[in-house]
Amino acid sequence: MAFFILNTCISCSEDSPTYTPLELYDIAVKYDSEISQVRLNDLNRPNCLEYSEGCIQDFVFRYKVRKVEMSVIMFDTQENAKKAAFKVGQYYVRNWLFDDVAGEPVLEHFVTDAFKAQRPTKDDFLKE
Question: For residue 50, what are the CA distances in angstroms to 45, 53, 54, 95?
Answer without folding.
Answer: 11, 10, 12, 17
